[in-house]
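Dear support,

I submitted the protein below through the web form. The confirmation email said the job was done, but the results page showed an empty box. After a refresh the structure appeared. I'm attaching both so you can tell me whether what I see now is the final result or a partial one.
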Amino acid sequence: MNNKLSKLTVAILSATTVGFSLPSFAQEEQDTQTPDSLEVIEVRGIASSIAESARLKRYDSRIVDAIVAEDIGKLPDNNIAEALQRITGVSISRDFGVGESVTIRGISQNRVELNGRSTSGSGRGGISLDDFPSSFLKTVEVVKSPTPEMIEGALGGTINMTTVRPLELEEPLVAVTLDGEYADKAENWAPMFTGAAGRNWDLGDAGTFGASVVMSYQDRTLRRDEFFNLVTPTELDLDGDGNSDAANTPSGNYLVRSQNTVEQKTEQRERTAYGLSLQWAPKDTDAFIYLDVNATDLDGGQEAYSVLNDSKDYSDLVLDNAYGDAQGQLQSFGSGSAFVQPKTWADFTTNDSMSNALGGEWFITDKLKISGEVAYTKSESLRTNSEFNLRPISRDQYEEDGTITENLFTITMTQEGDAVPGIAFSDEDALLDPSNLAIRQFTHQRYYEENEETAIRFDMEYIEPFSNLSFLTKIKAGIRTTDRDYELDRYDLRNNGSELKNLQTSVSYDGVIRPTWVDEFNSAFGGFKEINHSNTFEQSGIFGTNALTHYYVYDGAELAYNIDGTYDRVKQMLDGSSHELTGSLDDNMVRNTGSYAQISEETQALYTQFHLDFDKLTAVVGARYVQTDLTSNTFDQTGSYDYSDFLPSINATYSLADDTILRFAAAKVMRRPEFGELSPAISVDNSLVTGTQGSYQLDPYRITQYDLSAEHYFGQGGMVSAAIFYKDVESFTVASSSCMADSNTVTGQNVTEYVNVCLLNTAGVSQADVNYASGDQDLAYVEAQRDAGLTGIVIDTDVNGGSGEIAGIELAYQQQFSFLPGMWSGLGVSTNYTYADSEQPDGNPLLDISNHTFNGQVYWENAGIQIRLAYNWRDKYLDTQDEKRVRPVGALATGVYNRTNPEEAFFDPTLGNNYRDARGQFDFSASYDVNEHITLVANAVNLTGEPIVQVTELDSIWQYSESDRRFTFGVRARW
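What the results page shows now:
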C-alpha cells in the first residue's frame, strides 16, 4: 500500500534547535513503516513543522495529532499546554494565565508520558505541563485512540512527549536559548535559559557511543487579580409599597450579591531542569542500550491578599436606587451593618522530580526484536500553607467600655456593563486605619508528599510470523509491572493543642481579654504594608472605584518566604498572655494523624496486538489485560482492594485514494482513582466548614469509546479532516455529602460564608442529610446555631456512581499558499473546530466541555522572517458544580437548597453550577534568522489582555479573574 512513513533524517535534527535540547528516553514503538527509498525531510520554519505534523498524523496507525518541535520551540508556544491547545479536541486549563494541563475531548483524566514512559507528579496523570521545559522536546503527540501496547490510564488521550536520541546526531552540536519574559501585571522581567550539547564517538570495533546533556532555568513572577461575590436569591420590595417586586428570574427573586471579595496573588516560581542521555550501539549488530536521567527542581510560592466585606445583617439593604438587570441581578444598592475582613495567606512549595530509565532493544533476527526497560520515577514535595488574618475591631468602643465589637459601616455597590462593580465605603479608612484592625488568626500547615513508581517492561515483536498468512504483518506482545507508593503527611501549628484563631476575643493579659491592634503590632515588630496596585483590573475595568483594592495587611512575602520570622513576631506578641508560645515554630508543629495517607499499588499488565494489512485496509487489533492490587493505609487502619480490566481495541485505516484515508477506532479504557480519592482519611479545611474523604474500594473510571474520521492530504503539508467521536462514560467518581458533628466547631468554626455551613438536627450527632440555612436565616442565625453546637462539617465522600456520555465532531484544515506569487507564497493557515455535547444522569453537562471550540493560526515566512498570529476561542462551559459562592443559585432561583433529592420540593440539580463564560485569546510571535546560527525571537501571550469571567446558571456574573499578558524577547544560537 502507499501509506508508508518515510524516516526522518538528521536534516530534521540539524534544523530544529529544540530537538538539540533533549535527553533521550525510551519509547514504546508505534506502527510506522519504512519505505524502500529514504525520503529526506528538512524541517525549517512554521510551514515545514506544520507539514511534518500532518505527516505524523497521516502515517500513524492510531488517531493522533502532533506538534513538531518548531511549533513548540517557536513562539508563541513556549509552553507545552499552550502549544497543544492548537490541536483539535484539546482545551487547556491555565494557572496565573499559564497553561498547565489539558482536556482531550472534554476529559481531564489523561496521561503525560515521556517517550511512552510514565512521568512523575503529585497525581495520576504525571508531571504538570508547565513544569516541563518545552525546549526539551522534538515532538508532542496527542493519542486519542489507544493500542494495546500503550500504558493504561488515559480516558481522553495520552500526551506523549518525544525526544531525540544521541545516536541520531551525525555531528557535534551546541544550542543555547536566552529569553527575557515580561509580565505586565507583576511588572517583572523573568530570565529563561536553555543550553544543550551532544555528540557521538565512533569506537571502532567497540561500536558507537553517544551522549547529550541539556539544562534549563526559569525564574518568573506572575500576578492574578480576582473579584467575586456570594450570590443569594432573595425576595425584595424595591419600591416600598409592601409588595414583593418580580426580578427577571423564574421565581421572581433577585440575585443579591454580598461578601464582595478582592483577591490579589503574586506567584514566584523558579524551575531548574536537566537531562542526560547516554546511548551505545555495538558494531555490526542491530541493537542499542540507553541510560536516561531527567530531573526537575521547583521552588516557588504565592503571596496573596483576600479582602472581604461582610454584613452582620443581610436584610439591612439600601434599595433607594436599586433595580434588577436582565439576569435578575440586583444593581445599584447598598448594605448596612458591613465590616471588612482582610486576610494574608501564602503557600510555598518545593518539588523535586526525576525520571530515570535503563533499557535497550535488539533485533535477534531480521524478524524478531526484543526490548526492555527498567524505569524509576519519583516526586517529592513540601507544601506549606499559612494565614495571617485581621478583624475590624472598634478601638474607641473597647477603650470606652471594654467591649469587643466590629467596626461597622455602610457600603454601596454600583455597576454598568461587564466591568468590575464599584464599591464605596461610608468609612473610607475601614481598610486603611490600623487602629481599627486587630490580629485575629495565624495558621501554618506543612504537607509532605511523595510519589514514586518502579516500572519494568519487556516487549517482543515478530515480523511476518506466518508465511501463509501474508496479511498478518506483525505480532507484538509484552508485559509491564509496576510498584507504586504514595504518601501524604500533614503537620499543623498548635499551641497546647489549639489553633491560634479568634485571638481578638480570646487572648488575655493579666486576666483581661485584650485585642492587639495592627498599629501596635507593626510599631513593635513590623511586617505590615499598604497595597494599592496601579494596574488592578485594568483588563475588565472598574465602574468608578472599588474600595476593596486599597488595603493595609500583613506582608505576604514575609508569610511565604520568612515563616520563622512571622512566627517569632506572633510569639513576641503573645508573650505574657494566656496564649504564650514557647519554643520554635518547628517545636510547635503537630502531626495531623487524621490526614495521613499511604497507598501501595502493584499492577501487572499483559498485551498482544496484531498488525493486519489487506492492501487498502490496515488494522491494529488486540487487547490489554491489567490487574491492580491496592493497599490503603491511614494512621490507624488498613484496607485492601483488587480488580482487573480487559481492554480490547481496534484501529483500522482504509485508503480511499492515495491521498485520502478513512479511520475507525474503538476501545475500552480505564483510569484508576486519584490518590486522594483512595484514602479514607478525613481532611478538613481551616474554617471547619468542609472536608473530604476517599475510599480504597473505589473502582476505576471506565469508558468505551468510538471514533470515525476522514483525512485528505494535498500539496506541501495541506490537510483537511473530519472526525466523529463518542464516549460512553460508565463510571466516574462522585461525591456523597454528609454533615459530620465535631465538638471543635463551637469555638473554632468560621461561619462567615454561612450559606455553606451545614445544620445539625441534634447537637453532637452526625447525619446523612445536609441542610443549609434557608432564605430567611442569615449570618446571625447560623452563628447562634454554631454556639449551640448545631452546626457540622460538610464531608464529601468519594463513591462510584457517576456516568454520562460525550459526542462530538472535529474539523481541521491547514494549507500553505505556495501557489501565490513571490513573497506571498510564504503565507499559510492552520485552523480547526470542535463541537462536543455531553450529559450527566442529572441532566447537567459534564465538566470542562465547551459546545464550540475554535483555533486558528495565520502565518507568513520569507527570507528568514517568520510571523504568526494565533487565536483560540471556546464557548461557555461548566467549570465546577456545587460551587460554594453560588450554591444557592440554580435554574429555579428559589434560594432553597435541594440538588440531590427529586422527591422533595424545589429539586434543582443546577444549584451551584459555575460556568466559565465564552472567551477568546490572541497570541503573536515573530522571529528573524540573522544567519544560520543566530535567531532573534519575540512573542506575546494574551495579546489583547482578555479576562476570565465566571457566571451562574442564570448567566449573572459572579467572578472576574485577570492574569498577566506575557511578552518575551530572546535570542537562539546553535552550532
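Response: this is the final, complete result; the empty box was a page-load delay. Residues 1-29, 32-43, 71-76 have pLDDT under 50 and may be disordered.
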